[in-house]
Amino acid sequence: MPTSEGQVVPLCRFAIVAAKFNREVVERLVAGALAAFRQQGLDDRAVDVVWVPGSFEIPLTAQRLAASKKYAAIVGLGAVIRGDTDHYDHVCRAAADGILQAGLTTGVPVIFGVLTCQTEEQAYARAGGPEGNKGADAARAALEMAAVMRRLDDAGE
Ligand code: INI
Which residues are CB-contacts of 83 (< 8 A; sequence separation ≥ 6)? Predict the structure, then answer.
């Protein structure tokens, strides 16, 4: 968007796609991501948060948002916790492969911020507990990748 001085302001909107499954954990990841964006001077209004049923649904939604070209990067946030069956493996694989595909097919960075844990305790530890906040890490990765893409654009690569 051109400013009054004629400079071009780089695209600086981001989106978070958050899974409602294990919502208490994911809300902490979202809060961590928003705080990390804020720390880099990005207002909450520059970050759209879209909630989806589970981590399995993150890729399609992230791909659609990325294809809109409205966002510098998309952050996928979810928490997959192992249960008694092998459902966990399918959800983890689909989320990881799908998030990768969403980025590769659109050329927009899509960040993998999905916890894949054996226990609830491990998940809470990584959602603002002793192991940090992986939502905040994912937001920082989104900012870094947005800057990398912008540099490559500017260099014509
Ligand atoms: N989705 C998650 O995000 N985390 C989980 O731990 C999980 N488990 O364990 O089942 C989960 N399942 C739901 C899945 O993501 C889809 O929403 C569902 O299969 C409908 O497509």
Answer: none
